[in-house]
Amino acid sequence: MLYQIENRSIPLATGIFSKLSPIPHIHSHLELIYMEEGSCLATVDYQNFLMEKGDLFLSFPNQVHSYHDRSAVKGYLFIFSPDVCRDLKEIFQKKIPCSPIIRSSLLPLALHDHLEIIRSRNESDTYYDKIAAKGYLLALLAELLPLMNLTGSPANHDSVKNVLAYCSENYTKPLTLEQAARELHLNKYYISHIFNERIKISFVDFINCLRVEHACTLLEQGCNITEIAFSSGFSSIRTFNRVFAQNMNMAPRDYIRYKENGAAVPVSYPFLTSAVPAAQS
């Protein structure tokens, strides 16, 4: 399942990805991606950046980010707490990169080998290997950060994070913009502005995207479709079927058949891809 806000307890998670999340999400960790194959449009704090084969992506804590794959993708994905690299923690807390992308031409020649060492050591069962993985990661970041243009972190990160956290905790319930504004003690027009002008979708469309993601997980577990509709926050089966089709380009039963056949599901998320500005270099 794709999460828009994540509470992570693992200090360093490493792995190989073949799919990236199109739903805007946020967490208190850093997220590093090395694109071995394919390309995607990375959106960070409402700006879009084209990430191509051989490029490296690094988002800082509490930056809203999402990805729209432009082709089949594969690469390394590391998500880690600032505490893993304590010598750099103050930088991660007070700065953000003007661009999260480091182009392939600027990266160290041995980057792939370095990433594989971090991944293999971190996924080892040996305590000392895990410690070594953190040391290799710190050394790598010390090489990468000078390649990035860093600026001061904006003052409104907390408000955006609080709004997304509220959505994360309440999307399976009946939820309106007015209710969110009342419980968050924020003006409803300010919340609407966050979604329409900053995240580029409406509050309702964002909530529906989260509900559809939740429904997909339940469909894959073999749950009853009627129960899934209501437990995901939809008020009726009709609304569930309509919104699911808008987001997934297929009916829920077709989604089940795709999964049973082991086929890749062509996810659409039209609300997340409409009105997307041009990518920055």
From TrEMBL:
Record-linked PANTHER family: ARAC-FAMILY TRANSCRIPTIONAL REGULATOR (PTHR43280), HTH-TYPE TRANSCRIPTIONAL ACTIVATOR RHAS (PTHR43280:SF28)
One Pfam family here: AraC_binding
Protein name: Melibiose operon regulatory protein
SUPFAM superfamilies in alphabetical order: Homeodomain-like (SSF46689), Regulatory protein AraC (SSF51215)
Alphabetized SMART domains for the sequence: HTH_ARAC
Domain called HTH araC/xylS-type: residue spans: 161-258
Gene name as annotated: melR_4
Top-level taxon of the source organism: Bacteria
Keywords linked to the UniProt accession: DNA-binding, Transcription, Transcription regulation
Lipoprotein in keyword set: no
Gene Ontology terms, MF aspect: DNA-binding transcription factor activity; sequence-specific DNA binding
InterPro entries reported in the protein's UniProt record: AraC-bd (IPR003313), Homeodomain-like_sf (IPR009057), HTH-like (IPR037923), HTH_AraC (IPR018060), HTH_AraC-typ_CS (IPR018062), RmlC-like_jellyroll (IPR014710)
